[in-house]
Amino acid sequence: MTMETNTTEEQILEAAKKVFRAKGMQGARMQEIADEAGINKALLHYYFRNKEKLFMAVFADAFLQIMPNMDQIFSSERSIEEKISVFIEAYINMLAPYPDLPIFILSEARRDPTILIEVLEKSGVKPVSITEFILQEMDKGNLIRMNPSHMMVNIVSLCIFPFLARPLLETVILKKQGVDPKEFYNVRLEEVKTFVLRAVIPNYSES
C-alpha cells in the first residue's frame, strides 16, 4: 500500500469520524463523508464499498481508543490494588481526549448490539477472562466477595459517567461552583481510585 493510499484512507476515516459521531450510523450519508474528506463519492466507495464497512472501521477505532489493555494490566506482576489503580488511570486517561466517544459508542451499541460483540471479538477483550480473574482474587481473599459482573460495572460506571454527563456537569454544576473542569477531572481520577479500592479491597488503608 502506497503512502498516498494510506493518506487518502486516513483522510476518509478522519472525515467519517466527524460525521458518524455527529449524526450516527443512520443519519450519516456517504456523500457528506466524501465532501468532508474533500474527495468524490466514487473514490470513497473505492476504499469502502458501503457505509456499513466504513462505520465498522470508525466504531472499532473508537472502541479501541477508550479500552485499556485489560489483559496486559491484569496479567502483570502488580498487586491487586495496583492493577485496579492502573486500570482506572488508563480508562479515564484514554477517555479524557475523546469525551464524546462514550456517547457515540453507547448510542450505536444500543441501536445494534451485534456491532459491539463483533468489535469485542476482534479486539481480544474477553469479559469471561476478567470475570475468572476477579473470582480467583476473591478466593485468595484479595477482593471482597461480590458478584464480579457488578464489580466491573461499578468500576467502569464511575470512570465513564462524568464524560457521559459532561454537558450537565460542566454547565450546571461546575460553572455555578466556579470549578475548573480540567482540575475537576484530575481530582476525579484520584477520587475514583480511592472509592473503588475502599469498596473492593479487604481492610484497605491509604498509604
Keywords for this structure?
207 residues, mainly alpha, Arc Repressor Mutant, subunit A, 2 domains, 12 helices
Provide the fold topology.
Elements: H1 3-27, H2 30-37, H3 41-47, H4 51-65, H5 70-74, H6 80-95, H7 101-111, H8 113-123, H9 127-139, H10 148-164, H11 166-177, H12 181-200
Helix pairs in contact: 1-2, 1-4, 1-7, 6-10, 6-12, 7-8, 10-12
Describe the structure.
It is a single chain. This protein is mainly alpha-helical. It folds into two domains: 8-61, Homeodomain-like (Arc Repressor Mutant, subunit A, Orthogonal Bundle), CATH 1.10.10.60; 66-200, Orthogonal Bundle (Tetracycline Repressor, domain 2). It is built from twelve helices and no strands. The protein has helices at residues 3-27, 30-37, 41-47, 51-65, 70-74, 80-95, 101-111, 113-123, 127-139, 148-164, 166-177, 181-200. α1 (3-27) packs across α2 (30-37), α7 (101-111) crosses α8 and α10 (148-164) runs antiparallel to α12 (181-200).
Summarize the structure.
This protein is mostly helical and 207 residues long. Helices cover 77% and strands 0% of the residues.
Query: How large, in whole angstroms, is the Cα Rg?
Result: 20 Å
- The overall pLDDT average reads 87
Q: Give me the count of strands.
A: 0
CATH class of the largest domain: Mainly Alpha
State the share of residues found in helices, binned by percent. over 70%
What structural class results from the helix and strand content? mainly alpha
Q: Count of helices?
A: 12
CATH architecture classification of the largest domain: Orthogonal Bundle
What is the count of structural domains? 2
Query: What is the CATH superfamily classification of the largest domain?
Result: Tetracycline Repressor, domain 2
Topology order in helix (H) and strand (E) letters: HHHHHHHHHHHH
Estimate what percentage of residues fall within beta strands.
under 5%
CATH fold title of the largest domain: Tetracycline Repressor, domain 2
Largest sheet: none
| C-alpha termini separation | 52 Å
Globally, the shape reads: globular
Low-confidence stretches: none
